[in-house]
Each structure stands twice: as structure tokens, then as C-alpha cells.
Amino acid sequence: MITGDMSITEVVEKYPKAADILLSYGMHCFGCMAARFENLEQGALAHGIDVPHLLKDLNDAITH
User: Fold this and answer.
1) What is the DSSP string of 12-64?
2) Mean pLDDT by groups of 10 residues along the chain of 64 residues
3) In the prediction, which pLDDT does 64 show?
4) Looking at the domain assignment, is residue 3 inside a domain?
5) Is there a domain that residue 2 lies in?
6) Does 25 fall in a domain?
7) Greatest distance between any 2 Cα atoms in the chain
8) What is the pLDDT at residue 27?
């Protein structure tokens, strides 16, 4: 399960399908240096993304 406190890099490394979801939300930052230190919630908020919706979409993608 993906949670908001996981680093962006950790999410993409563990769940490669997550990259497509992040890109669809405009989060292209999973390849940048900040992705290693910033958690998913922080990154989403910085991009004005609704965190609960993002987490739902990510978890749906990795479970289906």
C-alpha cells in the first residue's frame, strides 16, 4: 500500500506502475533530487494536488 509519508522515489521503485499515475497528475519530479527527500504528500501539496485522490489512484493502480 502506498502512503503519503513514503518518498516519491521509494514509491516509483517499489511500484513502477505508479510513475504513470504521477505523470498523469503532473508530478514529473520522481527523477529529480528532491524526490529522494520529499515524501509523496509533500510533493503532491507542492503541486496543488489533492492527496487523498492521488493516493486512491495510486493504490488502485498497484492492486489491479
Assistant:
1) HHH-TTHHHHHHHTT--GGGSTHHHHSBHHHHHHHTT--HHHHHHHHHHHHH-
2) 93 92 86 75 92 98 90
3) 82
4) no
5) no
6) yes
7) 30
8) 87
